[in-house]
Amino acid sequence: MNATSQASSSMRDRKITSARVNVCSPNRNFVTLIIETEGGVVGYGDATLNGRELAVASYLNDHLIPALIGKDCGQIEDIWQYFYKGAYWRRGPVTMSAIAAIDTALWDIKAKMANMPLYQLLGGKSRDSVLVYGHANGTDASHTVEEVLRYKEMGYQAIRAQSGVPGLDVAYGVSKDKMYYEPADSHLPSEQLWDTRAYLNFIPKLFEKVRDAVGTETALLHDGHHRMTPQEAARLGKSLEPFDLFWLEDATPAENQEAFRLIRQHTTTPLAVGEIFNSIHDCRELIQNQLIDFIRTTIVHAGGITHLRRIADLAALYQIRTGSHGATDLSPVCMGTAIHFDTWVPNFGIQEYMRHTEATDEVFPHDYKFESGHMICAETPGHGVTLDEKLAAKYPYDPRQLPIARLKDGTMWNW
Ligand code: GCO
Ligand code: MG
Q1: Mean pLDDT throughout 100-122?
Q2: Domain of life here (predicted)?
Q3: Is 325 a catalytic residue?
């Protein structure tokens, strides 16, 4: 075979011949894209958007997949630009999750073709393992303290603490199950009551107890879940300073990025934002004005590796580190890919790691593992996660939505 025919045969091998969307619900819903090439290489991408799964599935099936078939799987950048610029309607969680799924599956294929674990293709290891934080939550302060100590016992070196708030029936992040938490709990959104004053009066007392019990070494985190105004968030950040938080997350809604300036002016508690962002433009002002310390965008909701890499590079200019979202509504495909990304990215901070249920882990065979508070990424070519489609078929889609929040007088609030 001469050089030209060799090149053209590999081009043939690289042709994308099929792409299909799998929607399954092994304890919670996941959307997975599976891409196959002429040469028989299969790549997997996560396309899960909690509570809006079928919108992404339809965006892929009806709009992107027909144009993807026949393309060269090696041209990841051009395919990304084609679906981003080519849609005319740019950005948004549905669009960007669909593009992310294609991008992730194509990086998986490229790494498999190169016979390398994904982190090698990205530029190699910047660290041996990836620091993760787990979720400790309790119905009240003493229960939360117990849970934090249990997580410490399991080996976690960074722990997020959430708690039930006196006077409120339910609180964000507090689950009935000891290991798993899923807020998307019913077909139509369930309604939760919110009271910022009760929350603000309670949280500093909670962290005083937690810090006292856990000692100085363990990193502690907390998620405000978009509930406070900038002024309230400034007060909370300030009152938590004695307890040395690793970060305060989503202190106020970030559609108005400028809002973080006020919080910043009042507190040295580090700030993390970005799990619901889907493009570099959503975080540009926050990063360039140095209003945050950690950027939480993820592979699945922020346009895949191709786009997340650009966000991380922009953040690196300002010493802002990554702290990717890793709740259970991001599938093991996203988690595995994130661990490769985290192993490479120079300005890594921390990775969220909420455990998936056993059923989910079985449906998505994967090779990453947890060891002494860190995730270790394995050496399998690709990102190391697949989908057992036969097993997945036993768990059909189960429509569920995230809750909404209201104040006592009925006013709609941010959940
Ligand atoms: C987190 C998040 C999640 C979200 C969930 C919504 O910090 O892990 O806030 O718990 O609420 O991903 O689907
Ligand atoms: Mg969060």
Answers
A1: 98
A2: Bacteria
A3: no
Tell me what pLDDT residue 179 has.
76
* Paired strand residues for 130: 375
Sequence spans of domains, the chain = 3-117, 121-383
**For residue 274, how far is its CA from the centre of ligand 2 (angstroms)?**
9
**Whose C-alpha lies nearest to ligand 1, atom 9?**
225
- Active-site residue (options: 84, 119, 133, 172): 172
Q: How confident is the model at residue 7 (pLDDT cuts 50, 70, 90)?
A: low
And the tokens for 114?
A: 């190169």
Q: How far does the centroid of ligand 2 lie from the alpha carbon of residue 395, in Å? A: 27
**Is beta strand 158-163 parallel, antiparallel or unpaired with respect to 219-223?**
parallel
pTM for the model: 0.96
Q: Which ligand is nearest to the CA of 134?
A: 1
The two beta strands, 404-406 and 412-413, are: antiparallel
Nearest CA owner, ligand 1 atom 2: 327
pLDDT at 178: 75
CA-nearest residue, atom 6 of ligand 1: 50
Question: The domain 3-117 is classified under which CATH number: 3.20.20.480, 3.40.50.300, 1.10.3720.10, 3.30.390.10?
Answer: 3.30.390.10
- Give Cβ neighbours of residue 377 (< 8 Å, ≥ 6 apart): 117, 119, 129, 130, 336, 339, 340, 342, 343, 368, 384
Q: Which residue has the higher pLDDT, 107 or 171?
A: 107
pLDDT band at 171 (very low <50, low <70, confident <90, very high): confident
pLDDT at position 97 over 50: yes
Judge: domain 121-383, CATH 3.20.20.120: yes
